[in-house]
Write a structure and sequence with these properties.
By secondary structure, the protein is of the alpha/beta class. Helix content is 39%, strand content 14%. The chain has ten helices and eight strands. It has a six-stranded mixed sheet with strand order 2-1-3-4-5-6, sandwiched between helices. Strands 7-8 form a two-stranded antiparallel sheet. Helix 8 links the parallel strand 5 and strand 6. The longest helix is centred in the middle third of the chain and has 18 residues.
């Protein structure tokens, strides 16, 4: 399940919102044998391309479009994983029971003490966590006027999809106010075959931010990025385990920790 994490210097902070959203904790015991197998691989072995057909990628786009235009038809979607993802994002965007407000408060409560203390911060968001991170950064820059900037790393993000973009917090604003203005550099990484990040490129969708100086750079790492995480059912390119094991992700984090530019192509 996705989360938002915050790196500050050599410290790592988890803005854990899963229990708020799902009302339960995931049983990671199911995944542990496969995580152990992942950790036994060589560091340079970042995985092989999963067999995901263009037809399935196209179908996934269409299903999200269907959920966008005719939400009542999503119950007819045959793919249980995609149907579940659509339902999860719908609940977040509709702020069911105020859950989205509470989730962003968790992220803000994690960020604020670090920023007030003058630390440099890298925000890492995986999957829906990347959407939550983006919305939170918009909220604290446009509504609450926090004076600080952060760096942003998104993994397996659905932010490239119109379905998501038209539901972000800034969607009703005009011009520059549609976007946060507190991101220094933004790196986006998407593995081949990750259907949650079916539109894997972020830069072309948020180029307004670049043109108007709201962000210093946006870099997509998508070519040759594979996940090494497998389960009994085969490759699972979206799970966070594969992302955090990937050398491309490690390189970005290490470069940031060392104070080096981390926005060049990995």
């Amino acid at each position: 399940m996705p989360n938002v994490s915050v790196s500050m210097g050599r410290n790592f902070h988890l803005a854990a919102w899963n229990h708020l959203y799902y009302r339960r904790d995931a049983d990671i015991g199911i995944d542990m044998p496969w995580v152990e197998r992942l950790l036994q691989r060589l560091p340079e072995d970042s995985g092989t391309p999963p067999l995901v057909s263009r037809w399935r990628s196209w179908r996934t786009r269409m299903l999200y479009t269907l959920g966008d235009l005719m939400p009542f038809l999503t119950s007819l979607v045959g793919d249980a994983e995609i149907r579940s993802t659509i339902e999860e994002t719908r609940c977040y965007f509709e702020n069911c029971g105020g859950v989205s407000d509470r989730i962003r408060s968790v992220v803000k409560d994690t960020l604020r003490p670090l920023l007030e203390a003058g630390h440099e911060v890298l925000v890492v968001g995986h999957s829906l966590g990347s959407v939550i991170a983006f919305d939170t950064l918009w909220e604290v820059s446009r509504r609450e006027r926090w004076p600080w900037r952060v760096e942003l790393l998104t993994l397996g993000s659905p932010l490239g999809m119109f379905y998501v973009q038209r539901r972000l917090l800034g969607r009703t604003e005009h011009g520059a106010r549609r976007y946060p203005d507190n991101i220094g550099h933004w790196v986006n990484i998407a593995t081949t075959g990750d259907l949650t990040a079916v539109d894997r490129r972020i830069r072309d969708d948020f180029k307004f931010m670049l043109r108007h100086g709201l962000v210093k750079s946006i870099v997509d790492h998508t070519r040759g990025i594979y996940s090494a995480f497998h389960t009994a059912t085969g490759p699972n390119p979206h799970r966070c385990y594969g992302y955090f094991f990937n050398p491309a992700v490690a390189d970005v984090v290490v470069r940031w920790l060392q104070g080096k530019p981390f926005t060049t192509r990995v």
